[in-house]
Design brief:
2 copies of one chain form a homodimer.
Chain A: H1 3-7, H2 18-31, H3 44-51, H4 55-67, E1 71-74, E2 78-81, H5 95-101, E3 106-116, H6 120-126, E4 134-143, E5 146-156, H7 170-176, E6 181-192, H8 195-201, E7 208-218, E8 223-231, E9 238-243
Helix pairs in contact in A: 2-4, 3-4
Chain A binds a DNA duplex (30 and 30 nucleotides) through helix 4.
Chain lengths: 244, 244
DNA sequence: GTTGGTGGTATTGAAGTGGTATTAACTACG
DNA sequence: CGTAGTTAATACCACTTCAATACCACCAAC
């Protein structure tokens, strides 16, 4: 039992209704940090029995906390401490997400989709033998029809054997095939654009570009995707939130 | 029979579900090294019978280990200990942390520590009026005595009024003053080094550098720090893990 | 191929959770 | 008084989770 539960004390003789007394005490307990974010509160029935009130009374108290945004309820599952508003994710904002957020219209254009053999680097990072086939995808990423990034993907043949079947989202296609990427390690670096990149990205030669190398893993832990993205920094500007 | 199997003990009376109890104990056993990498775990049926639970319950426990990347399953063949891969967090690896991890010796050298007035950009992002004083710090970050980054920090005067008092860690100094940075938004971009940067970072002019702009917040939500770090990409290579 | 063991999955039921309609008692106020 | 609104209780419904059974699909050894 949570320590808090035994500390709650209601007084029926008082003029303020029971459910308000309870709500008030719960607010104080939550703000004092008695529960972690995401942790389950005692169920309405437990709360009711241990305080000798009806479940409805306990429930009305919780209603107030919901209105305050302090807790969240899930039917059939329980009541949980709500995440505090501005402690958002420690997660990378994806290409599409970010552009949409900023009011741009993302799209992409295929440069090539074909089968091939892995380079030494690729076979090392993807854990393949040299005679393994790989699917190689290359495309331009656009925002409002302006090129903002060049992206090259390499996938083991056993993960994706028909390059042409990828029409829009690569990740979506992998999900449909039953082999979704569930985790990824992403390195971020910077390079000077060579002649080819500069032409594709429509920037002057030697312009500094963000280079992001993402190694995606399948559910079984094997590598399933190696993608390198070269980003123009005037458009894409990638962001992380740190908490501690 | 593996020695571990007889050590597993489940308690149906406990409130935590059986499959979680089992998962927890298996994680501990695996991390204790009870099985070699690639070795087969007891089959789901063996696990179930020896613990007097249904196969599904044993299976759900294994599901969690798969999600954690600890084991791999092969249909018709068995369940095996997965090769360990770098299990980094969904967190930014800090400058010092990363270098130490890779076996380097980090240090830093002050270029300047003084009071001044904020630029327009700084006063905007830190939420200051133009006549506010700011503390300005500039230093080189070294790994094994080679420059790997140039860092410029700007802090409101009310947060840090004596620049000279920062000797080693800025964050540590702020903690000591009772105004720690508890959250930060970090933008990552790339730029071409100008003449001054190139000279400080000891790279050719126009070399691509990672530019990381970090806006740190105090516990009360006010901005407390604006730091720009220019990183050589041949040394520092910053990494995030994505999960979803 | 056949066989025995493996993981994969559809379905079920019990128990626990929040959701809601209805009713009884109390209070405030004209 | 009598009415309206608030407070609190009961009873029942719907959803989720946990654990079980039964059956299917795959692999390897013979």
């Amino acid at each position: 039992m949570a320590p808090t539960l035994s500390r709650l004390k209601l007084d029926a003789a008082q003029s303020t209704p029971l459910y308000r007394q309870l709500a008030q005490q719960l607010v104080e307990a939550i703000e004092a940090g008695d529960w972690e974010t995401g942790e389950a509160l005692p169920s309405e029935r437990v709360l009711a029995e241990s305080l000798n009130i009806s479940r409805i009374t306990a429930r009305k108290a919780l209603d107030r906390l919901v209105a305050l945004g302090l807790i969240q309820r899930t039917h059939g599952s329980g009541t949980f401490i709500a995440p505090r508003l501005n402690q958002s994710l420690t997660r990378l904002t994806s290409f599409t997400e970010l552009l949409v957020q900023r009011g741009h219209r993302p799209s992409s254009r295929w440069l090539s989709r074909r089968l091939g053999t892995p380079t030494v680097e690729e076979s090392l990072r993807l854990g393949l033998s040299a005679d393994h086939q790989v699917t190689r995808l290359k495309r331009l990423r656009l925002a409002d029809d302006v090129v903002v990034a060049v992206e090259e993907s390499c996938l083991p043949g056993h993960v994706l054997s028909d390059p042409e079947s990828v029409t829009h989202s690569l990740y979506r296609r992998l999900e449909d095939l039953g082999t979704p990427i569930v985790r990824a390690l992403q390195h971020v670096s910077a390079i000077n654009a060579d002649a080819e990149l500069a032409q594709l990205a429509q920037v002057p030669p030697s312009q500094a570009l963000l280079m992001m190398t993402r190694l995606g893993y399948l559910a079984d832990g094997r590598p399933g995707e190696l993608t390198i993205t070269y980003c123009r920094t005037d458009y894409y500007d990638f962001m992380v939130e740190l908490t501690q």
